[in-house]
Give the backbone structure.
Amino acid sequence: IKNITSESEKMIKLRGKKSLDYLGDINEKKLKAAWKVSFGVMLVVMVSITILGTISFRMISRSIQNNSSISSMQLVKQTAKNIETVLSDIDRLTIAMTSDGELYKLVRKHNLSDDEHEKAAYSRKIREIMNTYAVNRDDIADIVVVTNTMDYISSGELIINDQKDVSSYNAVKSFRESEKDSLWVDTYVADANSTFKSTGSYGQVISFVKKIYEPESKESCGMLIVNYKESYLFRLISDIKVPDKSNIYILGKSGNYVMNIYNRNANGNYSQYDVYLRDVVTSHGGSVRRAIDQEDFIITFESIQQIAGTALDWRVVLSMQAASVTEGIT
């Protein structure tokens, strides 16, 4: 009996030990499972936060870029309007002068005269008319009448004789080749001494040329040139507050700089921005993204096609580093 009892106790203890070991295994498995579940939950949460953060960043970036594009578009549109206002004033002045019957008569008489004393008298009266129109116009370098006989008469109190071939002057040559009634000539270094001495440190002008004609018959007897100082256009553009890491330019029809406020010596030279805008040249305005020197840029532009019927084909261009738009977002 004692032996039987002893064996029974041993079996009970062995079973109890196995039960405890079994319970320990279950607890360990549960703990491992719990850690796996917790880690999975944490991983899902972290991935979700990352995805939501990325989506939010993209949405915010897109919103900021859209707002930036709208602001840039408004800036170039307003700049274009300001330029139109200035050039329209030059156009009105030129129309008033070319429609002046007295100016036409004097220029015509100058063409027909062979007497040097008569021609000098006509030149003096023509100069007086131009000086009357140019009074208090500091933005104008000078006003010039070029007769059909290629005599060059400029405004101002001093008479400066130019020994060059008048037909070779940029404005004169461009106008004759155009065969038009009026023409805008983009920024260039004045080649007439009388103009150059009135322009300022860079000697540059933008010229508006128009035929001088008899109001009724429209018979032309010469051309009138109004030379607008580049320095005044420079002030107009340089006073504009552009966004950080942005530059603003004016380009001409041939892709040339009409105004480069960062390097005025480049005015008249070909601009790289013409390449980046070539595929949208028919568009009046808009915004495009372009890679320039391996950096992403947003280029916004607005065209000025004409001034009172005379073709201009200028583009106001704002170039902005795309990265600068979202630079403050973390």
Remarks:
- Residues 2-98 form the longest helix (97 residues).
- The mean pLDDT is 83.
- The two ends are 84 Å apart (CA to CA).
